[in-house]
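Researcher: We're teaching a course module on how sequence relates to structure. For the next exercise, students receive a sequence and then see the predicted structure as C-alpha coordinates, so they can try to spot secondary structure elements on their own. Here is the exercise chain.
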Amino acid sequence: MENKVEKKIPVYMTESQTIIELSQIIQQYDAEIILKKNVNGSIIEANLKSFLGLINLRLHDGDEIVVECVGEDAKEALSEVEVFLSKG
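Model: And here is the predicted structure for the students to work with:
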Protein backbone atom coordinates (compact mmCIF):
# COMPACT_ATOMS: atom_id res chain seq x y z
CA MET A 1 0.00 0.00 0.00
CA GLU A 2 1.32 3.41 -0.94
CA ASN A 3 1.83 6.10 1.65
CA LYS A 4 0.10 9.46 1.21
CA VAL A 5 0.94 12.56 3.21
CA GLU A 6 -0.29 16.10 2.81
CA LYS A 7 0.61 19.34 4.57
CA LYS A 8 -0.16 23.03 4.18
CA ILE A 9 3.02 25.07 4.29
CA PRO A 10 3.96 28.71 3.77
CA VAL A 11 6.48 29.56 1.07
CA TYR A 12 9.53 31.52 2.22
CA MET A 13 12.20 31.50 -0.46
CA THR A 14 15.26 33.67 -0.80
CA GLU A 15 16.03 35.45 -4.06
CA SER A 16 18.78 32.94 -4.77
CA GLN A 17 16.40 29.95 -4.55
CA THR A 18 14.37 28.77 -7.50
CA ILE A 19 11.57 26.24 -7.74
CA ILE A 20 13.60 24.58 -10.51
CA GLU A 21 16.33 23.84 -7.94
CA LEU A 22 13.75 22.17 -5.74
CA SER A 23 12.47 20.15 -8.67
CA GLN A 24 16.00 18.87 -9.31
CA ILE A 25 16.56 18.04 -5.62
CA ILE A 26 13.41 15.92 -5.37
CA GLN A 27 14.13 13.86 -8.49
CA GLN A 28 15.78 11.32 -6.15
CA TYR A 29 12.38 10.46 -4.64
CA ASP A 30 9.99 7.95 -6.17
CA ALA A 31 6.98 9.67 -4.61
CA GLU A 32 4.67 11.75 -6.75
CA ILE A 33 4.76 15.28 -5.36
CA ILE A 34 1.92 17.66 -6.12
CA LEU A 35 1.83 21.32 -5.12
CA LYS A 36 -1.60 22.94 -4.77
CA LYS A 37 -2.15 26.70 -4.67
CA ASN A 38 -5.38 28.67 -4.32
CA VAL A 39 -5.50 31.35 -7.02
CA ASN A 40 -8.57 33.59 -6.89
CA GLY A 41 -10.69 30.77 -5.48
CA SER A 42 -9.47 28.10 -7.91
CA ILE A 43 -7.04 25.38 -6.88
CA ILE A 44 -4.08 25.13 -9.27
CA GLU A 45 -2.10 21.88 -9.08
CA ALA A 46 1.37 21.16 -10.40
CA ASN A 47 3.57 18.09 -10.30
CA LEU A 48 6.83 19.19 -8.68
CA LYS A 49 8.79 17.06 -11.14
CA SER A 50 7.28 18.97 -14.12
CA PHE A 51 9.01 22.23 -15.05
CA LEU A 52 6.05 23.47 -17.10
CA GLY A 53 3.61 22.84 -14.27
CA LEU A 54 5.82 24.75 -11.85
CA ILE A 55 6.06 27.73 -14.15
CA ASN A 56 2.26 27.89 -14.33
CA LEU A 57 1.98 27.70 -10.53
CA ARG A 58 3.92 30.98 -10.10
CA LEU A 59 4.99 30.56 -6.49
CA HIS A 60 5.88 33.72 -4.61
CA ASP A 61 7.37 34.38 -1.22
CA GLY A 62 4.54 34.38 1.31
CA ASP A 63 2.22 32.07 -0.66
CA GLU A 64 0.58 29.23 1.21
CA ILE A 65 0.48 25.90 -0.58
CA VAL A 66 -0.57 22.33 0.07
CA VAL A 67 2.06 19.71 -0.65
CA GLU A 68 0.76 16.21 -1.36
CA CYS A 69 3.17 13.28 -1.64
CA VAL A 70 2.20 9.75 -2.62
CA GLY A 71 4.62 6.83 -2.64
CA GLU A 72 6.93 4.70 -0.55
CA ASP A 73 9.15 7.67 0.34
CA ALA A 74 6.33 10.23 0.65
CA LYS A 75 7.25 11.38 4.18
CA GLU A 76 10.89 11.97 3.25
CA ALA A 77 9.90 13.84 0.08
CA LEU A 78 7.47 16.07 1.99
CA SER A 79 10.15 16.87 4.55
CA GLU A 80 12.61 17.84 1.80
CA VAL A 81 10.06 20.14 0.14
CA GLU A 82 9.13 21.77 3.44
CA VAL A 83 12.75 22.45 4.39
CA PHE A 84 13.53 23.96 0.97
CA LEU A 85 10.45 26.20 0.87
CA SER A 86 10.95 27.55 4.40
CA LYS A 87 14.56 28.70 4.03
CA GLY A 88 13.56 32.36 3.66
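Model: If you want an answer key for the exercise: The mean pLDDT is 89. The CA atoms of residues 46 and 54 lie 6 Å apart.
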